[in-house]
Design brief:
The complex is a heterodimer of chains A (97) and B (27).
Chain A (H helix, E strand, L loop, with lengths): L5 E5 L9 E8 L13 E8 L5 H10 L8 H21 L5
Antiparallel strand pairs in A: 1-2, 2-3
Helix pairs in contact in A: 1-2
Chain B lengths: L4 E5 L2 E7 L2 H6 L1
Antiparallel strand pairs in B: 1-2
The chains are: A alpha+beta (97), B alpha+beta (27).
């Protein structure tokens, strides 16, 4: 996926038992972001695969002052790429991981 | 810990903590 300068990873082992994930996002390459942000802080949040959208979470992060509006697309894309990967892995694993 | 901060926005909880040193070196 195109490198947004942001890294998103699972904050906890994916138990696959429900649609909720614990994710962690932080800035890996500050030069790739346009607006103001905090470099060495990781933001942990829950993401519900059925109810949430990456855009909505990115919007909340911008509203909370973690990122500038101009970076919300990059934040959403980073979350979307990771969630898509997790869904693919879940599909490949036997039921219940 | 004092380094962790919890922020709520529209019912969503964000837990902010320092990026582990090891992860910073990785990038």
């Amino acid at each position: 996926a195109e490198d947004t300068g942001l890294r998103v990873e699972l904050a906890e082992e994916d138990g696959c038992s429900n649609s909720s994930l614990a994710l962690r996002l932080w800035v890996e390459d500050p030069k790739k972001l346009k607006g103001k942000h905090k470099d060495n802080e990781a933001i942990e949040f829950s993401f519900n695969l059925e109810a949430d959208t990456p855009e909505e979470v990115a919007y909340e992060m911008v509203k909370s002052g973690f990122f500038h509006e101009s970076d919300s697309k990059a934040v959403a894309k980073s979350i979307r790429d990771r969630v898509t990967l997790i869904k693919k892995i879940r599909e490949k694993k036997p039921a219940g991981c | 810990s004092s380094l962790t901060q919890v922020v709520h926005s529209a019912g969503r909880r964000f837990i902010v903590s320092p990026v582990p040193e090891s992860r910073l070196r990785e990038s």
